[in-house]
User: Fold this.
Amino acid sequence: QVQLVESGGGSAQAGGSLQLSCAASGYTGSPYCMGWFRQAPGKEREGVAAISSEDFTTYADSVKGRFTISQDNAKNTLYLQLNSLRPEDTAMYYCAARVGRLCRPLTSDRFNAWGQGTQVTVSS
Assistant:
């Protein structure tokens, strides 16, 4: 059973930066895909970025060039660097994982392990 624990959320002003972390435990196999999703109040959960066990990355168009996903396999930790933040980035951010190297399509129904979420709030 994979366990995922996010940290690093908080508040930032527009144009600022935050870094999210997700500590993973319970799964040491390969291949896999790990991703970040977000959900704003009244909106559906949407995929933000994902990275495979072979380090292939994929991003939502809305965050390309601003967010960077990475992983540290030695620490079993997934990261999301959020730069040039916008108020519309405000949401609860979730870490997720699935078995298999294919991260696309980046939809929540394809991921079967989830963290509890961390809040990101961006003010204008």
Q: What stands out?
A: The CA atoms of residues 19 and 81 lie 4 Å apart.
